Design the sequence.
């Protein structure tokens, strides 16, 4: 569905993305993680056609995003981190904006709004930021776009809304859709994503499916200091040492995304070796 | 909505005309309150300015020259200001994302902007002008008539004011010619188109930047004609229009003209008069296509 080859992008000669290669397929939810300024939003904008690659290419279902053809735009919806809502009621918004999306579903929109507990009879501009964001996410899902890009979608959502968000997103996925969620709030994506991609300094530091991570890594708390030298990554906490180790038990480990993310940032080579070393296959 | 199924891909698609009309409806619903308030403000301002003409004495109130001045100054200023706002959402990151990702082509978005800023604005501005102008002229005539009845002047001295018409610029309304009026209106559309381009081209302060750019270009053009073209002509030869040159022969005391073949001159003048808005709209289209949302 999405093919990114040797993507380079700079802001005023300052490189943000350097030689990115990535392939995203429909039917999956991808988590794009990285520090602030790692290039996550820039990558999403390149995918949406809001920024044009300096070098390399991006293809979404064979289309070049930068051309912003209506057919391409009908297949895509971006929920940006900072967004604009018009000063109209939800009903008017749907009535005048949904006709641009041929796969629009009123039923799904009503259902998602209900799930998020959003009132329908007030102006969008009179809603709180969290409510506006949930309304926008509901709209995005109801367009039934094949590619859904979300930039920090859980920013501004309260705790219960975050779990509503996970439920709604998981329910919206089908085999035709590809959802890419960019965030630095790693915990919010737990039990939601199928694949994790970590960006750092404009490069892909780590890119693995959650299945593969569960099979090969183990995440645990340990009080045994002898385990420290064998750990791929460790950090001390009040409860003991949080460790990322090789999964030698054979069963699937439950990944701790936050710990994994830190491990990738600090020990990316060690971690990537686990997945590339034939002995671990 | 006209959604159809593409026979080759089996995908749903929207007919371009239907999509354009949807854009128009969306633009209107999002901006109607602001547009209606702006129109009321313009109407109120016109009314206020016309009231000022009564301060100059009832005989001179609402004379066609004054009406023409209000009409054209308002048209140029408000039209250009509105033109500079039509794509201004592109200068605000949040709105630019939503606007650029709305599933419609760049051409449809451009034509939607032109529909509101060029066509609809011109029609509504004229309607608004006459909505204020006609009653004010009637009021001025009624006051003048009552004043006249009280005076001892003969009835033949009374001449009612006429409503100004931009389509009747000859003689009585300011002494211009119809040709001058057409050029005036065409200049308005060309200048407004420059402001529309400026709204896409500049990311901040586009009205001010476009104004400065136009002034600099005008000044550069003036210098070019005066210092380059005029000075490169042989002695005694001067420019008498864009494509005409006059020569005064000191020996024979006769004036001579250097003219292009009339067909060529007509075509060149036609292109220069009529092509500016279209060229600038095309440049706006190209700029819209290459617009990115940085930061």
Sequence:
């Amino acid at each position: 569905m999405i093919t990114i080859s040797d993507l380079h992008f700079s802001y005023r000669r300052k490189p943000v993305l350097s030689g990115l290669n990535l392939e995203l397929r429909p039917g999956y939810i991808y988590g794009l993680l990285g520090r602030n300024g790692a290039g996550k939003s820039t990558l999403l904008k390149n995918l949406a056609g809001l920024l044009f690659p300096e070098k390399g290419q991006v293809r979404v279902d064979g289309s070049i995003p930068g051309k912003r053809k209506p057919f391409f735009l009908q297949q895509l919806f971006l929920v940006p981190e900072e967004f604009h809502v018009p000063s109209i009621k939800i009903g008017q918004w749907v009535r005048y904006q949904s006709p641009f999306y041929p796969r629009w579903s009123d039923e799904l929109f009503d259902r998602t709004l209900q799930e998020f507990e959003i009132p329908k009879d007030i102006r969008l501009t009179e809603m709180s930021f969290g409510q506006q964001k949930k309304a926008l996410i509901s709209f995005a899902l109801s367009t039934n776009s094949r590619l859904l890009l979300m930039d920090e979608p859980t920013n501004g959502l309260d705790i219960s809304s975050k779990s509503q968000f996970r439920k709604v997103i998981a329910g919206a996925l089908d085999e035709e859709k590809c959802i890419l969620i960019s965030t630095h709030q790693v915990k919010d994506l737990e039990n939601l994503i199928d694949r994790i991609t970590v960006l750092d300094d404009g490069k892909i530091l780590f890119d693995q499916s959650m299945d593969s991570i569960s099979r090969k890594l183990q995440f645990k708390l340990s009080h045994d200091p002898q385990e420290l030298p064998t750990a791929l990554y460790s950090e001390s906490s009040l409860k003991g040492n949080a460790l990322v180790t090789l999964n030698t038990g054979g069963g699937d480990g439950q990944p701790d995304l936050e710990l994994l993310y830190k491990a990738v940032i600090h020990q990316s080579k060690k971690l990537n070796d686990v997945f590339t070393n034939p002995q671990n296959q | 909505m006209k959604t159809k199924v593409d026979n080759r891909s089996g995908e749903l698609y929207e007919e371009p005309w239907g999509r354009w009309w949807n854009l128009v409806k969306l633009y209107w619903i999002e901006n109607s309150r602001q547009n209606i308030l702006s129109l009321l403000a313009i109407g109120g301002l016109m009314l206020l300015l016309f009231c000022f003409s009564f301060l100059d004495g009832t005989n001179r109130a609402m004379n066609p020259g004054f009406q023409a001045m209000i009409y054209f100054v308002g048209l140029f200023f408000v039209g250009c200001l509105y033109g500079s706002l039509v794509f201004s959402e592109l200068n605000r990151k949040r709105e630019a994302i939503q606007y650029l990702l709305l599933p419609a082509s760049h051409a449809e978005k451009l034509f939607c902007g032109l529909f509101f800023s060029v066509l609809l604005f011109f029609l509504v501005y004229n309607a608004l002008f006459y909505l204020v102008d006609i009653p004010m002229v009637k009021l001025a005539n009624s006051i003048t008539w009552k004043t006249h009845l009280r005076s001892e002047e003969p009835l033949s001295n009374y001449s009612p004011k006429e409503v100004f018409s931009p389509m009747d610029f000859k003689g009585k309304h300011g002494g211009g010619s119809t040709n001058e009026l057409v050029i005036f209106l065409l200049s308005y559309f060309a200048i407004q188109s420059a402001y529309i381009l400026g709204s896409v081209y500049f990311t901040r302060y586009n009205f001010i930047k476009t104004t400065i750019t136009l002034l600099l270009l005008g000044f550069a053009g003036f210098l070019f004609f005066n210092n380059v073209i005029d000075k490169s002509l042989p002695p005694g030869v001067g420019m008498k229009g864009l494509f005409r040159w006059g020569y005064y022969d000191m020996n024979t005391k006769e004036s001579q003209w250097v003219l292009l073949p009339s067909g060529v001159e007509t075509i060149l003048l036609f292109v220069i008069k009529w092509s500016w808005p279209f060229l600038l709209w095309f440049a706006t289209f190209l700029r819209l296509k290459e617009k990115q949302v940085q930061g």
